[in-house]
Amino acid sequence: STSICKPKDNSVANDTSPVATTLTAVPKLPSLPTYSPLQERVQRPASYDWHQSGGIVCIAVYTRWQHVTTRHCTVAIVNNVLSVDIIIQDQSYRLALELAKKVVSDNFKVSMGSGRSGKLTIELRKVEEAVRWSNIGRTLPGNDTTQLLDDRERVYHRCHLVGKESLTRDILLLTLRCPPHLYLPVPTGYHNYLRIPDSILCKPYTAVPASLDVHAFTTQQAAAAPGNLLHYLIKVYEDGAMSSALDELSVCEEEGLTADAEEDSSLVEVTLAEGEHVNSLISGGCDPPVTDVALLAAGTGITPMLSVMLDAIADNRRVLLLFFNKTEEDIPWRVELDALSAKHPPLLQVQHVLSAASAAWRGKTGRVTLQLLDELLPVADGHKNVSLAVCGPRGFTDTALKLFDELSYVGEEYHAFVG
Ligand SMILES: Cc1cc2nc3c(=O)[nH]c(=O)nc-3n(C[C@H](O)[C@H](O)[C@H](O)COP(=O)(O)OP(=O)(O)OC[C@H]3O[C@@H](n4cnc5c(N)ncnc54)[C@H](O)[C@@H]3O)c2cc1C
Description:
The chain is an alpha+beta fold. It contains eight helices and 27 strands. The relative contact order is 0.15.
């Protein structure tokens, strides 16, 4: 298997997390439709140009990758230096420009070209609106270069914890706000490292959508601005070093903080997104296209599945979510999940499976078994192309993968996030 979450320092080198690190890479069978992202490898390098119109400077980036969205593009403006990092599959394309003249650092926009052109536009506001620029500025080292995501230096940005909500007895929804000069999104299938400032405590977490709303999720991708919010579902372990430290952070309610204060106990440091492109494996990009997506999640293994699910519904794929928890009370976002499936009845089916259900529970019970999967999972035929994904504690994932094999799903039809 291929590591998608290679530790880059000692604080994470011994991570034995219960959730997701690797994506199984299964040998390709020549006679079957391929689901490998490598088949879509971008052939030509990305490039950029710029133009101006009145008080606006537009930088257009041609990634030549059909899956790129604004959620793949991080933008920061500090001391009039523009830094742009765009995830293109397993690589990062970078712009580093000391801009020719002053721009408003907290008022820029990132937008996508129409269709799947692979074009992104970053719109900057001139401070002196009437002044024409003769050039874009000075290129800095690393400008207009591409490197493997795994090789990219891990840089931390200070964000504020602005929301903390208990979803279940041990799962929190944490909301972070990026500083006003930074747009830092996380695309589907990727995660970022969170670090407690001035400590070695640092672990990966998977950002989740703000809400389970397909329209809001997809329109948020169309245009994006700095100071964005990041949301995480965190399972708090009593003896868990990082999750308890996150639980102990204070929520900041003041507006306009700069994220510089050393003493601020609402600060969390966040890396740019890391990981691997999984979207095309699940919601499209292969031929023939996937029609049915089945997602198996246990506990906080739901985190990568939520964006996948919204993307797949937006792409008109049928989605079956099998969500394994102990009791009804342990199901995070249960009401929201059930409301989403009620809103998209032909497309989304949510099936809860409880291992310690109360006597009143009328739904599925037990653990992940051959009988359960045989009964519920979609089967590929002339009209259906099926894709499966699994995420949860190691034992859960291993069992599910074994059962996929027993049910004759082939390696390219499924993948696993394993820790
Ligand atoms: C790519 C990736 C994405 C992740 N996304 C999320 C996320 O969105 N939300 C989230 O809550 N977590 C996520 N995790 C897990 C997270 O990184 C931490 O591992 C987790 O929060 C525990 O860290 P801790 O320091 O609090 O606990 P630790 O101090 O490491 O241990 C906490 C507790 O977990 C137990 N434990 C340790 N390893 C395992 C294991 N393999 N199985 C079962 N129990 C174990 C320990 O006994 C202890 O009780 C993700 C992990 C990866 C690799």
